[in-house]
Amino acid sequence: xxxxxxxxxxxxxxxxxxxxxxxxxxxxxxxxxxxxxxxxxxxxxxxxxxxxxxxxxxxxxxxxxxxxxxxxxxxxxxxxxxxxxxxxxxxxxxxxxxxxxxxxxxxxxxxxxxxxxxxxxxxxxxxxxxxxxxxxxxxxxxxxxxxxxxxxxxxxxxxxxxxxxxxxxxxxxxxxxxxxxxxxxxxxxxxxxxxxxxxxxxxxxxxxxxxxxxxxxxxxxxxxxxxxxxxxxxxxxxxxxxxxxxxxxxxxxxxxxxxxxxxxxxxxxxxxxxxxxxxxxxxxxxxxxxxxxxxxxxxxxxxxxxxxxxxxxxxxxxxxxxxxxxxxxxxxxxxxxxx
Length: 339
Description:
339 residues, four-stranded mixed β-sheet, 4 strands, 68% helix, 6% strand, elongated
């Protein structure tokens, strides 16, 4: 027989109270059971935990942890079953058809002349990418939204019980960190991520890029900007680009030159760095294209600005690109590509 969280807690309390004389912990657990059944707030009970003696808190955690793992694992098992069900059979076939249609829309816009393309990027390309993200990057929230009532109810109870366990850990100043709720959410996202529809070879390149960024001490904003573009390229059916530290160096240098010398152009006034090809060569690499942006310290803003600009968009999503570099200085950004 499979019990819901409230029933399991009730069984635990019944067994616990039947063998022990009434104590403060028993009163708190009994009140917790009542609050759970009535979906009432129990923040005051968590506050009361701070007044318990250390031995009572230790006893409370020991008894609580006889039940907690079963509740948590039962929910996560149900969540995983639901997630896999949403990604199989007829649902999967419908998703595959929608993915093909969205990618066709995206690339049809990318192939347009720049004039009519500008409005089409906003009206057609952006919605297509949003749809692809929902189809290919399942999230815990979307899985739960599709699942509906029973699973969401079970989750709510488990998270509330996890919140109470964190309260015990905090009151006891336990060695274990009070991250019970966070770990449940992390497991949900791990299950969702395991169902990603992005190609494995592309994900391996992105993982390799993280290692390159760490080894070469690439600034975090630059790394995130590259990863964001790569994710979008994978969503629309293109290859991921390999992070080229030389292109990052050349890009960062051009961004700094634009900021300090007060110009905004692909053509630099600096001797020996006039063209992006020269700038790449100085950094020991080669380049096939360059995008520039100014106005924000956020890599997301730079990528969004380039995405909506036809010429820059074509650079970002050209199928022949193989390498990428991104360089930031203040509110200036340079993005360079290599084949």
